[in-house]
Design brief:
Keywords: Fatty acid metabolism, Isomerase, Lipid degradation, Lipid metabolism, Lyase, Multifunctional enzyme, NAD, Oxidoreductase, Peroxisome. The protein is α/β, with parallel strands linked by helices. Helices cover 50% and strands 11% of the residues. The mean pLDDT is 95.
C-alpha cells in the first residue's frame, strides 16, 4: 500500500484517504494507491468503499509534474473503470475541488456526496485537451447532452448546489468529508442499496452533432479542443460504452499531439512562472493597507474599483468636487456590476461606496496612504506636476506609482527627491476587469517597492509582469510595431477590414482596427503627433488618413464612427464608407500602386513584426524572458491563448523560416524590418525562445 492513499476498515466500510499535498493530484503513486486500495477492500470482505481527500481538497486533477512525461500504469481511464467495476458499493465524498481526473474518479464511483463549498468540473479544454478518463462518456449519461456540452466545452467550475440540481452528485451535506461519506455509505448499506455504475445507465438520444460541433468551434474562435470534445459526447450517444471509451481516448491523444495543446500548456506554466523573480527572493513588500488614486476617469475609477473589491480603502483625488462626484458615480457603476453578478451584497456595495471610498480635492488627503497611483492625462508635463506634489505631501516610505502607458518612468522619478519609491503600474482598461498589470521598474526603484507592486497585483487578482523602461514598455511597444506593420499593409493594398477578418480568423478576439475603434482613435492620434513632434526617421513610412478621421471627430465607438460605422450598434461593425476613399487618396499622394494580399500573408507579416519586436524587447532586457512577453500579449492584447503567445508561436512555426521572411521583407523596407539580434543569434545557434525560459528557470 502506498502512503499517499491511507487505508483503514471501519466496520464493513473500507476508507481510502488521499494524502498527497497540496491538492491530492492524481500522480502515479496516487493512482496505484487507489487501485491497490480497491483490491484490498475486496479481499477484506467489506461491503462498501469510501474515497475522500485529506487536507484542503478532493483530487484537484492531474499532477502537473508529470506533464510531458510518458504515463505509467495504472492509467486513469483504467483506474476509473476498475473503481466502477468493483462489486462493492463505492462512495466518493467531495470537498475543495474535484477537477478533471478528480471528477472522473467521482463519476467512476457509484454514489457521490459533497460539502456545500465543493466545486467540480472538467477543465481539460483550458489546456488544449478534453476529458480522457470517461468524462465525455459518463457525464452525458448523468446530465444529458446540453448540460454536459456546456460543462465540458467551457471548462467551467460548478458549485455543489448546481451539481446536485443537475444530478452530478447525489447529496450535499455540511461536515467533514470523511464523516459525511461514512454516514452516507452506512445508510446505503443499511437500506440495501446496490451498486450504481454510470456506464450501465442509458445514453442520451443523439442530436445533430455536426451542427453542435460547428457551433462550439465558432464560439471557441478556432480552438479545437472544445469542438473535439463534442465528438466524444457523440461517441457516448452512438456507441456502446467500451467503444465510446476507446473513441474518447483516440480523440484525447489527437489533441495531446496538437500545437494548440502545446500553446495552452505553455500559457498555463508561463502564468505561474511570470511572477517568480530572483531579484525579489527574500525581499519583503512594504505595508499596503490603503491606497490613493489620482484621476477618476475610466482608468482611475477602474483602478479604485479593483482596490475596493480587494478590501483596500481608497482615497480618490480629483481637481473639483464635481469631478470627484463623477468619479464616485463611475466607481459605483462598476461596483453595481459586481452587485448584479452576485459578487458583492447590497451591504458590501454600500460599505465600499460610502465608507471605504473617500473623495478628496486636495493633495493633503493623500498624506497617510501607503501607495498612490496617478491615472491622469498621458502627458509628461502633467505627470511631473503631479509627482512634484506627491513628493511634498506623501509620507516617507509611501510608494509613488504612475499608470503611464508609454512615458519614461525614470524621467518621472527624477522630478522627486525619492526616486527609489517610484514605480510604474500600467493597468489595462477596464482596470477592474483586465487581468494584466505591467510593473515597470525604473533605474532607481527599490527592490521592496518592486515587491510591493507585485503584492498589490496579487491582492487585486492580476497577472503581473515585470517590465523595464522604454517607450511603451513590453506590450505597447510591441503593439506599436505590429500595428505599424498592419498600417503598411493598408497603404500597400490591403483594407483594414480584410486585416481584421484575417486576424480574427487566426484567433484574435478583435482585429487591430476594431480594437482601435474600441479604445478610441484619438489615443493613436495623440501618439502619432507626439512621435512626429519628436522627429520621425527619414526612412519611416507615415500616413495621415487616420488623422483625417480624427479631425472630422470620428474617434471610434464613442463617437459612433471610426474605421467602422456604429449607427446600428456597437456590435454591427459596418465598414465606414468614408475610410477607403481616404486610404486611396493617401496611396495616390504617396505614389503607391496597391497590390493584393492573401489572408495568410497578412497574418505572417503581422506576426513576424510582433515576434521581431518582441525579440528586441527580450534582447534589450525590457522583458526578462520570452514567457514575460507571451503572458503580456495573452492577458493584455487578446492574443489567442491556444497559440501560447507570440514567442511560443514563433518556436512552433520555426525560427529559421521566420527570420528568412523578415530578411525578405527587409528588401522592401530595411528601416522597419530590421532583424532582432536575439532572433539572429538563436537561429545561428539552433536554439529556441523556450530554451531561454528554461535557462532562466534553472
Amino acid at each position: 500500500m502506498t502512503e499517499v492513499i491511507g487505508y483503514e476498515v471501519i466496520g464493513d466500510i473500507a476508507v481510502l484517504a488521499a494524502n498527497n499535498p497540496p491538492v491530492n493530484a492524481l500522480g502515479h503513486a496516487v493512482r496505484q494507491g487507489l487501485a491497490d486500495g480497491i483490491a484490498r477492500a475486496e479481499a477484506d470482505g467489506v461491503k462498501a468503499v469510501l474515497i475522500y481527500g485529506e487536507g484542503r481538497t478532493f483530487f484537484a486533477g492531474a499532477d502537473i509534474r508529470e506533464f510531458g512525461k510518458p504515463p505509467k500504469e495504472p492509467f486513469l481511464p483504467d483506474l476509473c473503470t476498475r473503481i466502477e467495476s468493483s462489486p462493492l458499493i463505492v462512495v466518493s465524498a467531495l470537498h475543495g475541488t474535484a477537477l478533471g481526473g478528480g471528477l472522473e474518479i467521482a463519476l467512476g464511483s457509484h454514489y457521490r456526496i459533497a460539502v456545500p463549498s465543493a466545486r467540480m468540473g472538467l477543465p481539460e479544454v483550458l489546456i488544449g485537451v478534453m476529458p480522457g478518463a470517461g468524462g465525455t462518456q459518463r457525464l452525458p449519461r448523468l446530465v444529458g447532452i446540453d448540460a454536459s456540452t456546456d460543462i465540458i466545452t467551457s471548462g467551467r467550475q460548478i458549485k455543489a448546489d448546481e451539481a446536485l440540481s443537475l444530478g452530478i452528485i447525489d447529496r450535499v451535506e455540511d461536515g467533514a468529508p470523511r464523516d459525511i461519506g461514512l454516514a452516507y455509505a452506512r445508510e446505503l448499506i443499511d437500506s440495501g442499496a446496490g451498486r450504481r455504475p454510470v456506464s450501465e445507465m442509458a445514453a442520451p438520444e443523439a442530436v445533430d452533432f455536426d451542427a453542435l460541433y460547428e457551433s462550439v468551434l465558432k464560439k471557441a474562435r478556432g480552438q479545437i479542443a472544445p469542438a473535439t470534445a463534442v465528438r466524444g459526447i457523440q461517441a457516448c450517444c452512438e456507441l456502446p460504452f467500451d467503444q465510446g471509451m476507446k473513441r474518447e481516448r483516440e480523440l484525447f491523444m489527437e489533441l495531446m499531439a496538437s500545437d494548440q495543446r502545446q500553446g495552452l500548456i505553455h500559457a498555463f506554466f508561463a502564468e505561474r512562472e511570470v511572477g517568480k523573480l530572483p531579484e525579489l527572493k527574500g525581499v519583503e513588500p512594504r505595508t499596503l493597507a490603503s491606497i490613493g488614486v489620482i484621476g477618476g476617469g475610466t482608468m482611475g475609477a477602474g483602478i479604485a474599483t479593483a482596490a475596493l473589491l480587494a478590501g483596500l480603502p481608497v482615497v480618490m483625488l480629483e481637481m473639483t468636487p464635481e469631478a470627484a462626484q463623477a468619479a464616485k458615480e463611475r466607481i459605483a457603476k462598476n461596483l453595481g456590476g459586481a452587485l448584479k453578478r452576485g459578487k458583492i451584497s447590497q451591504e458590501q456595495f454600500e460599505q465600499l461606496t460610502e465608507k471605504a471610498l473617500t473623495l478628496a480635492t486636495e493633495y493633503d488627503a493623500l498624506s497617510d496612504v501607503d501607495l498612490v497611483i496617478e491615472a491622469v492625462f498621458e502627458e509628461m508635463g502633467v505627470k511631473k506636476q503631479v509627482f512634484g506634489k506627491l513628493d511634498a505631501v506623501c509620507k516617507q516610505g509611501a510608494v509613488l506609482a504612475s499608470n503611464t502607458s508609454y512615458l519614461d518612468v525614470n524621467e518621472i522619478a527624477a522630478c522627486t527627491a525619492r526616486p527609489a519609491d517610484v514605480i510604474g503600474l500600467h493597468f489595462f482598461s477596464p482596470a477592474h476587469v483586465m487581468k494584466l498589470l505591467e510593473i515597470v521598474v525604473a533605474d532607481k526603484t527599490a527592490p521592496d517597492v518592486v515587491a510591493t507592486g507585485f503584492a498589490l497585483g496579487k491582492m487585486l487578482g492580476k497577472v503581473s509582469v515585470r517590465a523595464g523602461v522604454c517607450d511603451g514598455f513590453i506590450g505597447n511597444r510591441i503593439l506599436s510595431t505590429y500595428r505599424t506593420a498592419a498600417d503598411h499593409m493598408v497603404l500597400d493594398g490591403a483594407s483594414p477590414y480584410q486585416i481584421d477578418k484575417a486576424l480574427e480568423a487566426f484567433g484574435f478576439a478583435m482585429g487591430p482596427y476594431a480594437v482601435a475603434d474600441l479604445a478610441g482613435l484619438d489615443i493613436g492620434w495623440a501618439v502619432r503627433k507626439r512621435k512626429r513632434a519628436e522627429g520621425l526617421h527619414p526612412k519611416a513610412r507615415d500616413a495621415s488618413y487616420a488623422d483625417k478621421l480624427c479631425e472630422d471627430g470620428h474617434f471610434g465607438q464613442k463617437t459612433g464612427k471610426g474605421y467602422y460605422d456604429y449607427a446600428a450598434g456597437a456590435k454591427a461593425r459596418v465598414p465606414n464608407e468614408e475610410v477607403m476613399p481616404l486610404i486611396e487618396a493617401e496611396r495616390a499622394e504617396q505614389g503607391i500602386t496597391p497590390r493584393d494580399f492573401t489572408d495568410e500573408e497578412i497574418v505572417r507579416r503581422y506576426m513576424a513584426a510582433m515576434v521581431n519586436e518582441a525579440a528586441k524587447v527580450v534582447g534589450e532586457g525590457i522583458a526578462r524572458r520570452p514567457l514575460d512577453v507571451d503572458v503580456t500579449l495573452l492577458y493584455g492584447y487578446g492574443f489567442p491563448r491556444y497559440r501560447g503567445g507570440p514567442l511560443k508561436w514563433a518556436d512552433m512555426q520555426g525560427l529559421p523560416a521566420l527570420l528568412d521572411d523578415i530578411r525578405r521583407y527587409a528588401q522592401e523596407d530595411d528601416y522597419f524590418w530590421q532583424p532582432a539580434p536575439l532572433l539572429e543569434k538563436l537561429v545561428a545557434e539552433g536554439r529556441s525562445f523556450d530554451d531561454l525560459n528554461k535557462e532562466d528557470a534553472a
